């Protein structure tokens, strides 16, 4: 990751509330994405919240990407957008049972069968 002008974080970045076992073990990030998040995540979070001001063109572009995600070019930007979506986005929940709208629940269907006999 030496080809980037982006500053390393002052400390390693971890999100123990959303990813308690680590980024890579969550199954959502690769090992290289985990490395990017732990090395640069502290700086990216500080830039996003306004605690740090951008010092170079790459950091200024990162701030633009936060408001326009389709302009993401670098791996750092894409990984941070992925992190934001997974950590702050809405989680999907799939059930194993249920009925579609307009569908008669099974209990009502069975009671109708018994009445017809």
UniProtKB/TrEMBL annotation:
Pfam families: DUF413. Belongs to the MaoP family. This is Macrodomain Ori protein. It comes from Vibrio toranzoniae.
């Amino acid at each position: 990751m030496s080809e980037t002008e982006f500053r390393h974080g002052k400390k390693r970045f971890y999100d123990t509330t959303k990813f308690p076992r680590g980024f890579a073990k969550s199954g959502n990030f690769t090992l290289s994405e985990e490395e990017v998040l732990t090395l640069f995540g502290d700086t990216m979070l500080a830039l996003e919240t306004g605690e740090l001001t951008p010092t170079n063109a790459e950091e200024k572009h990162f701030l633009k990407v936060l408001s326009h995600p389709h302009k993401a070019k670098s791996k750092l930007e894409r990984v941070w957008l992925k992190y934001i979506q997974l950590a702050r986005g809405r989680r999907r929940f799939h059930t194993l049972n249920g009925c579609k709208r307009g569908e008669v629940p099974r209990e009502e269907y069975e009671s109708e069968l018994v009445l017809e006999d």
